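In the lab's daily routine, each protein ends up as an entry in a very long ledger. A line of letters takes care of the sequence, but it says nothing directly about the fold. The fold becomes a row of whole numbers, each drawn from a learned catalogue of backbone shapes. The protein below has been through that process, and both of its lines are reproduced in full:
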Amino acid sequence: MNLEIRGVNCRVEQAGEGENLLLLHGWGCDVSLMKPIFGALSKRCRVTALDFPGHGQSGLPPESGYSLSDYTAFTLELIRRLGIAPCGIIAHSFGGRVALKIAAESPQTLKKLLITGGAGLKAKRSPKFYAKRAVYRCLRALSRVFPDGEGFRNALRRRFGSADYNALRPEMRATFNKVIAEDLRPLLPRVQAETLLVWGENDAETPLYMAKIMEEEISGAALVVLEGGHFAYLEQAPRFARIAEAFFFSD
């Protein structure tokens, strides 16, 4: 189905009956990357999955981009419109950012929370990274005095930005910059929902140390480590589904 939420067309898929479970995909992904979980768990409950704005078959955010708070408000409106609160949430990567915001700021919406390879914490960076960023910021500031400042800034973006970043549409570059600027660590002690963290031991995008911080700072959280990387939930799909089923339906 398709819903218009906050002026953006949103692709939504639902299947199954019973308790409600919401799946939140990662950055640059869509519903299709949640299909193994969707198929397995829809036999036990009603599963809902969406394409976030700017992903999959959903529409784009406005030209100014979406912040994390915008994505959170969008998701909460979806939950309200579908009448699925309170629900369990399974969130991967970027979806983990949204899930943490919901858990900390709208706890009445959530029953249980499972985060796998979740983003939201500031990464440890090398001195080389900070030096490169300082050079970029200095050159960008100087662009204000150039006659073709916009052209110079675009050249800087192509030079310093990754290939993936440069391939994004302007709306999504603005969104990406807003989203990654927010460190969610201060929210962790505010998460009240029962929380399970499932991580790939070789996750290079959101390394295992981030999961251990979440485990320590979210009251009562538990951590399960799987073989695999950032998409360990797909690499170990049958095992992940069994873990999720036990977590959500063991009561």
